Please model this.
Amino acid sequence: MKTIYMDNNATTQVDPAVFEEMKPFFTELYGNPSSMHRFGGQVGVRLKEARARVAALLNCEPDEIIFTSCGSESDNTAIRSALNAQPDKRHIVTTRVEHPAILSLCKYLEKKDGYEVTYLGTDENGRLDIQEIKDAIRPDTAIVSIMWANNETGNIYPIEEIAAIAKERGVVFHTDAVQAVGKIPIDLKTTPIDMLSLSGHKLHAPKGVGALFVRKRLPFRPFLIGGHQERSRRAGTENTTGIIALGKACELAIQHMDEENTAVRALRDTLETGLLAAIPDSILNGDRDNRLPNTSNISFGYVEGEAILLMMDQLGICASSGSACTSGSLEPSHVLRAMGVPFTFAHGSIRFSLSRFNTAQDVDYVLETLPPIIKNLRKLSPFSAQKSAPACTKSFSE
Amino acid sequence: MWEYTDRVKDHFLNPRNVGTLDDADGVGEVGSLACGDALTLYIKVKDGIVTDAKFQTFGCASAIASSSALTEILIGKTVEEAEALTNKDIAEYLGGLPREKMHCSVMGQEALEQALKNMRGEAPSKMEHSHEGTLICECFGVFDEEILRAIKENDLKTVEDITNFTKAGGGCGKCIDDLERLLTEARGEGVCPAPSSEPSFPAQGMTNIERMHLIESVIDDEVRPMLQADGGDIRLMDIDRETVMVKFIGMCSNCPSSHLTLQNVVEAKLREKVDPNIVVREG
Model:
């Protein structure tokens, strides 16, 4: 059975060119870049090249890139660095729709270390209110951390504008750009962002490598203490294969940036328009006009997300759901809850996230097979648009 | 990715006995769209034997499979045999369910009980809780009696398991302490009799005036904010030994579920924070 992979916000296929680039570093080029001998030193030269490639994608200085093991490590490093560098400041501003790498960390800091955190809400389309961000910043705010693009809805936040607000107020600004890097243009020369997190496996590099951009002269406190690697900002022998791969992936991302925003977007739009037209009682979650070009989050009323995913899985289609049952938690996704998506729809949300490896045939296949799946599950369901209990239109609130 | 047995997958992909029965002798409806799963069970009984069963389910794969399995188990059983079925029979029929999904089998058991009660004319098809119980989990509407039964019947040992089986505690998490308490109570472990010098409830040994002040402050600090959040309010009218008289104001005064609020919120709070013998009346 063919695999139709539409779960690229979860992870991506390693680009074959990336795999080729990293292979020699598993075999003949296994030296330690810190070694004095040329055998290790040649690897160090290649790491430098990879760093420059990452910097080129973000338009920053190579020295401003710290390689890490993943997006979560980059996020943890950024937040803790800002807090440790400004011990007198005890307040954090973030949003309710962040990835758990930020959200769980903030809850932890609140509970264990007594920090105060302001979690900004969103409107029903998942949009932030700029005035609310301005109002949330206080003299004791150590850091504002707001994601560039949301992993579930694909919503893009006005990071340029938010970064300018934080700069004007003299507060450190971090953005989790794990979903944005490689999909939309990012220019750190013109955007006053202090720190930015990215993850390799979201842009066709393998899992196990990430990076943190830290602007020059920003006070920084390392998370991992040990050797002098990464200019003493992140100890631990370099993940040479991963870093080489990330460098190549960033180089390819520059080449494919237009394609992401034209070809991938066109596929996504065809899929989305087709599904919304073919399936009654289906709604789009998120900000229609301001989204990543690859993401579409659609709720199918009166059916449950896990059941939809498993039916699709039978046909080789991979996607994900914000439904409670898929995550092991009993409540639907925190992002949909923050947006106040009604119960009727929250449990039946499916996220499709495409990549440049998807084809028009993939989209046609989903358009052909998904409507009957929803129809069959609705036949099983005691609810429908006609017979749902009135209480069920109530939306989530926290 | 859940590890479902082949039996679960089969009953999910090819559910048996889907639909409704127009001439059902008993109907049981449990769950809701809000909770993320719901089941309506229809049974037909002739000469003490379940001759047909149908279902409609909104929920995940294991909820659909549990419902399908339940109907297959039921058909051909005597009413007595049906009455003796538990969630364990459903889970066993399916070759087991992931621990986190056991609540799907409990939903089947509840729907069956409701359908049998409905058949005997003892209850409407839609499950309603007796007012004797105390609401523990507000997010999923789970009462203490269901939790205690799940602990007993499935030999549950942790709070996590209570959530797996009943969903209680799986939302905001406010009731985790209550779940700990119920677990200790039900298992009879770790209950040390309080030393005699220690009061066994907050108001023990208080003067009447101190006790009244405590009741007043519990209502002011703990009860009123909850009611005000829903546009209502409460006034303390009188205190006569163990009887506390209150009056609902605003939205609460004509709310059809105010008697539930009276017992599950006001009385429960006062029993917890003041004296377990308190009775709250409206007047």
Observations:
- Chain A has two domains: 4-9+257-393, 16-253.
- Confidence is low (pLDDT under 50) at residues 389-398 of chain A.
